[in-house]
Amino acid sequence: MTSPHPRPSPDTARLVEENLMTLSQLKDMVASLSPDIYQQAFGEYGRHTLGKHVRHIIDHYDALLVGLERGGEVIDYEQRRRDEALEQWPQQAASHLAGIESRLSVLGGEPSSAALTLAYPLDEEGLSLASSLDRELAFLTSHSIHHMAIIALLAEQSGIHLPETFGVHPSTLRHWQRAPEEQASFSRRSA
């Protein structure tokens, strides 16, 4: 007898885990910051702060989760909340990140085969693009890591020491883990 509900994809669980690892790293960093450092402006026009990049990451996760909570009809990353408190107050942002982690954890048990629609604002009409939960989770990992790499550069300018792995994509971390094995294998073949 077959189940009326599709089984969750093992890929979805793995993608959720990558996102959770990324968000945990970000949450830990944010929770350790003072508001002064979190709000410190960088760049010629003062547009870059650690907080703005963190808020931007949060906005994207919220957009996905809100879209899913509405039945997955439309995921729209352009219609973000842009809550300025999340870019001003690190403890509030860390708390919000913890909430996102809780909401994401549930997705590991969800079927990933349901079709999603991604709203993309190419022009006045925009496009509706076919997507899936797995695709959006993969996007969010890459998007978050991209901004975390910028956060790492800004943090370094403020004298904040972050782990070497902060803002490094999971695929790069896997490559780094294999690199010693590959080098040893190459050395054995060359000998």
Automatic annotation (TrEMBL):
<comment type="similarity">
    <text>Belongs to the DinB family.</text>
</comment>
<dbReference type="Pfam" id="PF05163">
    <property type="entry name" value="DinB"/>
</dbReference>
<protein>
    <submittedName>
        <fullName>DinB family protein</fullName>
    </submittedName>
</protein>
<dbReference type="GO" id="GO:0046872">
    <property type="term" value="F:metal ion binding"/>
</dbReference>
<dbReference type="InterPro" id="IPR007837">
    <property type="entry name" value="DinB"/>
</dbReference>
<keyword id="KW-0479">Metal-binding</keyword>
<dbReference type="InterPro" id="IPR034660">
    <property type="entry name" value="DinB/YfiT-like"/>
</dbReference>
